From TrEMBL:
Source superkingdom: Bacteria
Residue stretches making up the ABC transporter domain: 2-222
Location (main, coarse): membrane
Cellular component, GO annotation: ATP-binding cassette (ABC) transporter complex
Membrane topology per record: Peripheral membrane protein
Keywords, in A-Z order: ATP-binding, Cell membrane, Hydrolase, Membrane, Nucleotide-binding, Translocase, Transport
Compartment list: Cell membrane
Family: Belongs to the ABC transporter superfamily.
Originating species: Blautia obeum
The protein's name: Nickel import ATP-binding protein NikO
UniProt GO molecular function: ATP binding; ATP hydrolysis activity; ATPase-coupled transmembrane transporter activity
Length: 222
């Protein structure tokens, strides 16, 4: 489903990804590990179509993902609905006036009927037990509450792939357990999971396949 072929990326003259080959099948749960600064976050940005290969090719479901192809608004809309990206820092992701507005934002952008937008929003509020937060502005929420809202925002789009960068960072033990169980259930439902984490316990619980990025910005699939 996801296929990277000899992908390179550099920030000006600083290499971040060096000839990355990666193949991910539908329903995989891949954990990516490696030292800080090796290019893991750059790889996530590329998978989400935020940046594009300097060299090499990226295909999703046999469609090439590039700056050119994502200029097609309908194609870009389809692709970004497929890929759910939960930022490590939830503050980067949340910008609306209330939790309810945050969750409804994606379905509204997809042009869904009003009744379906309401249903998806209610389902996601209930899924994460955050109904009482619906009218609260995101900047008044705790770190754990923000993480739940950011996940609800992504799940309201019903993505095929969920990509997470250190999803348990800064969360209390109860919220970590809730989130880990949710991610396991997400994968059991046949969805594809890509997780970057230094958390060994989380990696063991989620990982069906593992890959390691080294300090030379190369990726080795184990």
């Amino acid at each position: 489903m996801i296929d990277l072929q000899k992908v390179c990326y550099a920030y000006e003259h600083e290499v971040a990804l060096r000839y990355i080959d990666l193949h991910i099948e539908k329903g995989d749960s891949l954990v990516i590990q490696g030292p800080n600064g090796c290019g893991k976050s750059t790889l996530i940005k590329l998978l989400n179509g935020i940046i594009f290969p300097s060299e090499g090719s990226y295909f999703y479901k046999d469609h090439e993902i590039s700056e050119k192809t994502l200029k097609d608004r309908q194609f870009a809309k389809w692709f970004h609905q497929q890929m759910g990206y939960v930022f490590q820092n939830a503050d980067t992701q949340l910008f609306c006036g209330s939790a309810e507005e945050e969750i409804a934002f994606g379905p509204i952008q997809m042009g869904l009927p009003e009744a379906e937008i309401r249903q998806r929003t209610e389902d996601c509020l209930r899924l994460f037990g955050i109904e009482k937060l619906r009218e609260r502005p995101p900047y008044h929420l705790s770190g754990g509450e923000k993480r739940k809202v950011s996940l609800a925002c992504i799940l309201s789009l019903n993505p095929e792939v969920l990509i997470l960068d250190e999803p348990l960072a800064g969360l209390d033990e109860k919220t970590q357990d809730m989130l880990t169980e949710f991610l396991q259930d997400f994968h059991k439902a046949g969805k594809t999971l890509i997780t970057i984490t230094h958390n060994r316990q989380l990696a063991e619980k989620l990982g069906k396949r593992f890959a390691v990025m080294n300090e030379d910005h190369e990726l080795e699939t184990l």
